[in-house]
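dumping this here before i forget
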Amino acid sequence: MANRMPNASNGSLAAFLKDRRTRLDPSSFGFSGRRRTPGLRREEVAQRANISPTWYTWLEQGRGGAPSADVLNRIAKGLLLTEAEREHLFMLGLGRPPEVRYLRADGVSPRLQRLIDTLEASPALIKTATWDVVAWNSAAQVVMTDYSTLPAGQRNILRFMFLSPTIRAKQHDWENLARFVVGAFRADAARAGAVSEVAQLVDELCGASPEFATLWRENDVLAHGDGTKRLKHPELGDIELEYSAFAVDGRPDLSLTVYNPVDSKVADRIRDLARRRKERDATDPSMKPSAP
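structure:
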């Protein structure tokens, strides 16, 4: 017999289901007929979710035991819930969030891009759980890599670290950094439910880089919260950056990393380099990067 949920949880789940059901337009789903109340009928939601009408009715009445994750996923699909609403549904029904479903990112919102663009002296990157860079600011272009000159499929941090001699030469203590990157990458992929999505990349890197293959076999898992990074920059010289990593709310597939120069003079020089680069690109069309 299914375990009964606490009354408060029963009531909250019931109210949430009813509220979302009454917001839906029956005609958009091909349902017709006169109705005394707005939205879909309970049996129509049950039909869309492929569950028993009686079972769904009990859920809306705060009766019965806790629904399974499969039932909640079906209801979420039937009610066209957003990812945030689906997570809330699981918290009400089971007291925990749903298992992560990896959603591949094609880019970021204009608002998020504008946010990182305000960081004139702080390189900022937004990457996926597979460590593909999908957004960056001008400071990142002049300090890290000019991602805009690369095709989208080549903007991967793991490929940079293990397959690019230029990027490797810029790193202080490459060996320890490489170990950290692999461990943090493994943790990010698992957290976002992207283990299967990274399999092809891992196979590629294992075949191309014996060093990556060795580190991957060690199965280290590391946190990527904050720390310091040192670089050998061709124009800025040896620089030290403090970094912090942030989750992007509503986008479990993305993370934001911001690098702040430790030396204020370096910050001024980064700001100046980024400004001069923008001016150059504006006056010389031949210097603008090609489209990805």
